[in-house]
Amino acid sequence: MCLRSPWVCCAPCETAGVGIRRTSSTGEVPDDPVGLAVAEFVAGVLWKASVELHYDPVGPLTSAPPSPPDIALRATRVVLDGWCTTMVVHLDEQVAGLLTPGGGAPPKPLATIPEAALLACATSAGVGTDDRSGTLSPSVRRALRDTVIVELLSQQGGAGSAEPAWLLAEVLEYLIELSGTRVESHSLTHGVVITDAIEDVPRLSVSYPGGLRGAKRSPLLFDGQRSVLVVDRQGRARTELQRHRLDRLLPEAVRWGVDDTAFVDSGSLVALATRRLGGIGFFLREDRSIWTFVDGTPLVVRRGEHWTAFPLWLAAAIGSAIGGGRAVDLVVQAALMISVQPSGAILGIVDEPGDLDGTVEAKDRFDLRDQVDPEAMRAETKLHHLIDAGDMDAQTLARLAALDGATIVDRDGRLLAYGAIVTSADSQHEGARTAAARTLSITSLAVLKVSEDGEITVFRDGVVVGTLLRSGSAA
C-alpha cells in the first residue's frame, strides 16, 4: 500500500523541467533521475502535455488524493525502494477540448501511457547517473524512451491478450538496425504485423527477427508496401500478406482502391493488416521513420531517436468539432501522402465558399471558374477547367496540395481553391507557410500545414491546436 495524503496538503512542488512537477506528501522529494527522464519523455511525446510525479511512502493507505479531471491520465506503482510513485499526465486544454468535445475520458491508447512509463521506470530503477554530470547518459535516455514505447505497445491488446514485451523490443531493435541500412543506395522499407490470427501449428519454425537476420533479402521481400510479414506472439514468422492477394488471409477484403495504393508509402498495408488481423504493426518507411499501428491506426512514430504520438484520434476529434463531413478524412490522408515527400503544403477546410472572400483571390478560386467571362479569363482560370476534381479523392487532393499555395475544400470535400496565395499578416517572426496557415485558419474550420520535413500541424482560429506528426524535435 502507499501512504497518501491529499495533494493539496503536499509540500511545495519542485519544478524539474519545462512541463514537469515533482511533489511529495512528506515534504521530501526522493532522488529519481530515471523517473524524471521518463516524465520529460512523456511530456515530449504528447502534444502540449505536462507531467506530475507524486511520491508517497509505502505503508497503510490513510487517504487517497483527489481524482484528476477527465483530461488527465494517471497511474500508480511502487518504483523506488520505500516510495510509491503516481504519475499524472495533464493534457493541454485546447487539445483536451478536441479530444473530448462532448466530455468523457481520452481515447484508450492514450490512457495507458502513464502505466507504461512507470513500468519502464521499474525495469530501470537501478540505472545510475554519469559520475561527471550527475545525470543519465544519452544512451540510457534512448533506452528508456524505447522501453516506454515497448511497454505502451504491449498493453494495447488489453487484459489477457497483451503483446509480449520481449518480442516487441526485439522487433523494434531490428527495425532501428534496418533504418541505418541501405541497399543499392536506397533506404530500406519493411513491414511486420505481430498477431495470433493464424491458428494452425507451423510446419517450419522460423524465429523473427533472429532467424531472418542472415537473410539480407528478407526486408526487401516484406517491404511493407507490396508485402507484410505476419509473425505470431511466440515470435515465429508465419507467412506474408500481399497487397494484390489480400483475399488469401482476408477473405472479405475489398478491392484495393486508388487512395489505398497511394497511401502505402505511409503504411496503409500494415494498417489494413492490423485492422483485420489484430495485433501490433510496424512499418519502416524510406525516410527511416518507424511507424506503429494498432487497429488500423498509427499510434506512435519514431523519427531519428525521437518518438511522438500520432493522434489520428485528433483528426476524428476535429471532424466532431467542425460538425462532421468527409473533408477531414480526405485532408488527413492527403497530408500523410505529402509528408512522405520533400515538399510542404497547406490544406484548409471551410464551412462555405464565401468564407474565402477577402482571403483568396478570385483567380485561385476553383469554385468560381464558371463565373468569369471567357474573353477576360486569365491563364490560371483556364487551367481550372482542365482539372478533374468533380469527385475529390485523397490522391488528387495531395497532388494539388503539393503545389505552392493553399488547397481548400468545404466540409463535404468539394474543391474550392488550389495553389492559392493567402494574404497573411506580417510573417517576420515565422515562416511564410506558417503565417499563411495561421491567417487562413481564422476564417476556416481547420487548417493542416505540412512542413518540408514532414511535420503536420493543425491550426484553428489562428492558433496551433495540435499536431498529427512532428519532425523529431521532441526529447
Structural topology:
Blueprint: E1 14-17, E2 20-24, H1 33-45, E3 50-57, E4 72-78, E5 83-90, H2 93-99, H3 108-111, H4 113-123, H5 138-154, H6 165-179, E6 182-183, E7 186-187, E8 190-194, H7 218-221, E9 227-231, E10 237-242, H8 258-263, H9 268-277, E11 280-284, E12 290-294, E13 297-303, E14 306-309, H10 312-321, H11 327-339, E15 345-350, H12 379-384, H13 394-401, E16 406-410, E17 415-420, H14 432-442, E18 446-450, E19 456-460, E20 463-469
Parallel strand pairs: 2-3, 8-9, 15-16
Antiparallel strand pairs: 1-2, 3-5, 4-5, 6-7, 8-11, 9-10, 11-12, 12-13, 13-14, 15-18, 16-17, 18-19, 19-20
Helix pairs in contact: 1-4, 1-5, 4-5, 5-6, 10-11, 11-13
What does this structure look like?
- The chain is an alpha+beta fold.
- It has 3 domains: 7-145, no CATH class; 161-309, YojJ-like (1 (3-Layer(aba) Sandwich), CATH 3.40.1700; 312-469, DNA integrity scanning protein, DisA, N-terminal domain (YojJ-like (1), CATH 3.40.1700.10.
- It is built from 14 helices and 20 strands.
- It has helices at 33-45, 93-99, 108-111, 113-123, 138-154, 165-179, 218-221, 258-263, 268-277, 312-321, 327-339, 379-384, 394-401, 432-442, and strands at residues 14-17, 20-24, 50-57, 72-78, 83-90, 182-183, 186-187, 190-194, 227-231, 237-242, 280-284, 290-294, 297-303, 306-309, 345-350, 406-410, 415-420, 446-450, 456-460, 463-469.
- The strands form 4 sheets. It has a 7-stranded mixed β-sheet, sandwiched between helices. A 6-stranded mixed β-sheet has the order 17-16-15-18-19-20, sandwiched between helices.
- A hairpin with a 2-residue loop joins strand 19 and strand 20 (463-469).
- Helix 1 packs antiparallel against helix 4, helix 5 (138-154) packs across helix 6 (165-179) and helix 11 packs across helix 13.
- Residues 3-13 and 258-264 have low confidence and may be disordered.
